[in-house]
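INTERNAL AUDIT FORM
Audit reference: QA-55
Scope: verify that the stored structure record matches its stored sequence.
Auditor: D.O.
Record contents follow.
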Amino acid sequence: MATLLGILCTDAPIPASLLQPLLTYAVDRSFNAISVDGDTSTNDTVVLLANGVAGGQPITSHTSEDGIAMQEILTSFTQQLSQLVVRDGEGATKFVHIRVINSPSFDDARLIASTIARSPLVKTALYGKDANWGRILCAIGYTQGLSHTDTVIPERASVSFVPQDGTEPLKLLVNGEPEPVDETRAAQILAEEDLEILVDLGKGEQRGHEASYWTCDFSHECQM
């Protein structure tokens, strides 16, 4: 998170016992999945309040149809809000979505995405419009706390830049092997404000888990 107080309110009939798991799931995929400068304030807080005045059948389970719908709405809303924090980052010139797919667990995917997002070397390379996949791979490699020994296998790892204009991704690393990089196209992609970095850990194998993190670059105007 990044120095804020977030008060989320709903008139949906949701008991207090269900509010915390709903909020935890959403925040793990939004406010706890952003990084501007890597710091977190001691008073960062997000709370969810429900007064139930809308009436109707109470939502008593997160696995019910209404519970699933509420979770999707809450997660989407918190993601939209949290991404505004990144876009407003001091000195930021780029909004970067880091997406890690084909991980053996969500937690491992999020740890890797978080490490990339917080790497000063990655962030400065993005500002310099440098398609330096080595810095991304380095961050993947030194990620700590992974719960599976086979989460990162170099021969399976692939890294791509995904333009947000719908054109083909720029492949930087495929199954552990570097690709010839069109530096002109790389510079064009990195000149845009929005960018996705896609990290595939599975060499095409569908291992079922992915995670996203949102970050920005480090520019000359960034005050640390």
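Auditor finding: record pair retrieved intact. The longest strand covers residues 95-103.
Action required: none
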